[in-house]
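Protocol step 6 of 9: fold each sequence in the batch and record its structure tokens directly after the sequence line. For illustration, a two-sequence batch is reproduced in full.

Sequence one:
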Amino acid sequence: MSNNGMRKGSWAAGVAFVGFSGAVALGWLHEADLWVLRPAQEHHSGFLDGVLGLFPLIGSPEVSGVMLLALLTGLFVRDRRALMTPILLVLVTTGLLELAMKLFLPQVPI
């Protein structure tokens, strides 16, 4: 795929994301969300609870920090130091944005 084609795909994905986010924010997808959530919450699965219980572990700050440290160490060892700063900057910015969103955006209970 050419560079121009990739750029068009990126713009299309960005526009779709903004449009979908706007539809969710305006509550247009609330009924569809409830339609999916109600049947999913009716049945209890101990197996799925056990398997999916691993995801919060992977996203915990301690594990994420160790993974980031391993990634940055690998880049340093392979003499790719130029990539270290942008990766660290993106991950720190993402973490701060996530924290700000958790603290300041209200969540409406379903």
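Sequence two, same batch, same settings:
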Amino acid sequence: MGMPDASSVELVYEGGPRGLAALVQALRDEGLEVSYEPPIEERSGGMAQEVVVMLVVSAVGTVTKALTAKALEQLRARWPGIKVRGKHEKL
């Protein structure tokens, strides 16, 4: 994963793999480019464990933050309790 530039937003996701997939899809549906290292999925008793993943979201121009905020708002409406924050923010 490359270094973010001025038109990038860094997010940290904490949760299960399904929530991560929903987050990435929501961001991409807004036309954003998402880069991240997919976690190695470990299971305990048939249940997927929580993962922590840093994502870099980018777009052409300066619309990245607005589109990211829109995607997160829509995702939080569908996935109450999903844990996503800016890289330097606390949950």
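Proceed to step 7 once all outputs are recorded. Observation for sequence two: The first strand starts at residue 8 and ends at 15.
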